[in-house]
Structures are given as structure tokens and as C-alpha cells.
Design a protein that fits this description.
- About 25% of the residues lie in helices and about 25% in strands.
- The strands form three sheets. Strands 3, 4, 5, 6, 7, 14 and 15 form a seven-stranded mixed sheet that branches. It has a six-stranded parallel sheet with strand order 10-9-8-11-12-13, with helices on both faces.
- A hairpin with a 2-residue loop joins strand 1 and strand 2.
- Helix 4 crosses helix 5 and helix 4 packs across helix 10.
- The radius of gyration is 20 Å and the shape is globular.
Length: about 350
Amino acid sequence: MSGPDAGSRAVVVDRPGRHRLVRRDVPVPGPGEALVRVAAAGICMSDRELYDGHRDAAYVRYPVTPGHEWAGTVAAVGAGVDAGLVGRRTVAEGFRACGTCERCRCGETSLCTGGYAETGFTEPGAFADHLTVPARLLHPLADDADLRAAALLEPAAVIAAAVRTARPRPGERIAVVGAGTLGMLAVQLLAASTPAELVVVDPRAARGEQARVFGATAALSPDEAKDTGGHFDLVVETAGAPPTAASSCLLARRGGRVVLTGMFTPGAVGIDPVHLSLSQLEIRSVFGASSAAWSEAVRAFGVGLLDPAALITHEFPLEEFGEAVALVGGGDPKTGKVLLRP
């Protein structure tokens, strides 16, 4: 990693399909900010969409340094910030919520009406040696926390938000649709609610086997899952594939609950309103995570309920960002979470 005298490197995506590695002075934290030395940053499909130019224009601002899944160590703080944070291992919320609008006051910081701003999409992110963030967004970790694993606490916070919304109860029949990073983290958190069944639905047999290690009681292909229609008390959708919102609703029993966490693209199959009304389903969607969900994910990580490290399959230096981002969404079933390690 670069020392303070060597400056600080950052990946910059100037426009879709074009990136460069730049060297700059180490950023100086302003009032209320913290400077973090990045230890690891995860690449997800949202980053691939940003790079390919497929992200909604309202949710990205080029040129940008991506990177919203990360962990690191506080290197310096600005005026008004507790100096005791320096040296602490940490993660931070990505949404730059205003903290004063009605939704923020109600604790729904991921629904802030003050305007969208998010680390790695509209604000400089963590595909860099250093980044600055508002110190109020930090979630300090234990002194011995595995920062490589902690880089996955952002998707874990999204799943924590889904689990808060889902309200799992002991003894319920639960299905998780999708066995990517979100799905595997969902299995780990949902297993803690002692379900009677915890079934993972994914076409990749190897992912199903890994889900069993994390606490799933069974793994089914999408075709096999069709035969269980109307069986589950709770369905947590994590895949974001074109048919999975609609198919997840068909897996739920009448009066059941469905939580959608996948990021769907235009053209995804719609939910049948006739089935919805006759089945009296409760459907919720999740976009990002509130401060409360972040706190729950960090606590779960701290006590060992989450094992994100097992999901990491590839690690690259900043100089190989192009190769790293090409792996994400490339279709290789052996590709799990891809990290950049400054």
C-alpha cells in the first residue's frame, strides 16, 4: 500500500468503458470528515453497470472513482471529529443522507429526500488508496476485525435491511432466491432465526452446496422450485434476474411475505396483480440500507453470525481494475466476490 509520502492512487471511470489509474495527493479530511486508508473494496454488479454505462443516469455522476463496498483504517480526521477514531478499523454507510428531512428523522436514512448522494456513485469511492467520508457515517469495528471480510459489510447491511423488513419467526418455511453474495449472506442471517426450512433457489448446483454449509436445509433449481409453489411463509429475492420478482411471489403461500432486494433492469417480468390480490401477499422492496440496518450487520459480523470471507474468490491490485471488473457478471459460476486490494 502506498505510504503518505507516495501520494494516493485512485481508479477513475471518466465515462462508460474508459478508466485510468491516477496518482494524487493524499486527500485532506475537511470539518466533520474522516480520511480512511482502504484495506479492501468489493466489486459488485452495480459497479459493473456503472462501468458499462447501464446504471440509471440519476444514480451516477461521471467522472467518478467507484467503490461502495469497502473496509479500512481511519488515518486522519478533520475538525470537530473525535481524534480517538484515528487508527480504528472501520466501514461506513454509503448513502450521504441529510439527517434532517422527514424520512431521516424517522430513521429511514436510505429514503432520504435531500437528494441522492452515495459513495462510489456520485461521491469518490474506495477503488483507491484513501477516501474521505463524513465521520458520522462510520461504523467502527473491533481492533482485530478481518478487514478483507469486512469489505462485504455493505451487501450484508442490505440483507440486514431485508431481514428487518421480513420479520422472520422461528419455525417458518423460508426461501432465498439467488445464491450470489446477497443470497449467501441472507442464508447466514436467516439461519439465525431457526427456520423449519431454509431453501435456496439457484440454477448453479455448486452455489447450492455452499449455501448448505451456511445453514440452508435444501438447494433447488428454479425448475424444481416451481413444484413447491405456495409453500413458503417468507421469500427473500436476491438475484435481480428478469423473472425472479414474479417467480418469488409464486413461491409464497397465501398471506405470505416477499422481500425484493435484487436490482432489476427495465424489462423485468412484472408481478401478476391477480395473483397478488387473491393471495394477499405482503411485498416489500429494499434499496440500500438504513443506519439501523448497518448497525445490525456490523453487530452480526462482530459476533460471528456472518462469515463473508468464505464468499471471496478473487483479489486484484488497483492496477488490474479492468481485469477485475470484467470478471463480475462474466458468467463464470466459480466467480464469487471479487476484491480490489490497494
